[in-house]
Amino acid sequence: MNRVPRMLPALVALAALTACAAESGHVPQVQAPVVQAVGAAGVTAPAKKIKLDIADITPMGEKSEKVGVGFPIIVTFDHDVEDKAAVEGLLEVQAERPTEGAWRWVSARKVIYRTKTYWKPHQKVLFTARLSQLPGNTGAKDVSQRFAVGTKNISVVNTRSHQMKVYRDGKLAKKIPISAGRGGLVRNGVDVYLTTSGVHLTMGKKPVETMTSSWMGVTDPKDPRYYKEEIPWAVRISDSGEYVHQSAGYYQFLGRSNQSHGCVRATPAGAKWFYGIAQRGDVVKITGTKRKLQWNNGWSYWQLNWTEWKKGSALKS
């Protein structure tokens, strides 16, 4: 069976209805640098008043990782943003191979940039926040981060034919037999054992992920439903605990039937290969189930069409 780790904090209640959940599933993030003013004598000067700064930028910069063509730019501020339109107007994205994009506010402190179509692969993208130009933001520093877009990895998972096809820069690179969610556990009207259909993005990966039954409320080792397993080659694709990972045995079902708790199980060789090429922001399209992926379940922002996405901008078009 697919094993389910404890979840990342989810944006919606659906994320509590997990399919696979890990004990530790934190997605690495980058903290904005803290800048101190230094006087002529080398003594730290009194800090100037700053009412808004950036607390986090995701994903990491070009020196730390390459990202997939679906990647979002996620900016988290250190305080609630009062004038979202003014702040959004100071956020700039410049790509070597430009494509249309827009920001969407998902909370008082967090705004996300998504493109209309996927980024072009093999290029650099520069994000700049000109917070020094925000009225009253005395002492603020402009913040920049450059991203490196890697290979265009598009994976298509068909839960009815039990196969995953992985395309790299437009060419079919590998076919991998899989087993997806079998269904059969309904909570609050949602079958949480079904894999969600929709456009997922890879959010992170671990060579070994600890998956437990705690998501079901089962923590007693004496309970026959209890499990705690170390699962190899785990690539996270949602906040509700879905992964592409190596099947923990049960290889006879791969390519034949759906038997998991919601994750996409793959052969040992296939899972290891997929893990090796996976970049955060790669696209994983899943089809064939009745359970729809919610747009705010992880990095599933491509579930909104372009018109709907732009409605989240504070700027009038």
Automatic annotation (TrEMBL):
Keywords carried by this UniProt record: Acyltransferase, Cell shape, Cell wall biogenesis/degradation, Peptidoglycan synthesis, Signal, Transferase
- What pathway annotation does it carry? Cell wall biogenesis; peptidoglycan biosynthesis
Q: Which InterPro entries match?
A: Big_10, LD-transpeptidase, LD_TPept_cat_dom, Transpep_catalytic_dom
Active site per UniProt: H245 (proton donor/acceptor), C263 (nucleophile)
- The chain positions of domain L,D-TPase catalytic read 153-287
Leader sequence segment: 1-21
CDD domains assigned to the protein according to its UniProt record, in alphabetical order: YkuD_like
- Which protein are we looking at? L,D-transpeptidase
Question: Organism source for this protein?
Answer: Nonomuraea helvata
The upper taxonomy is: Bacteria, Bacillati, Actinomycetota, Actinomycetes, Streptosporangiales
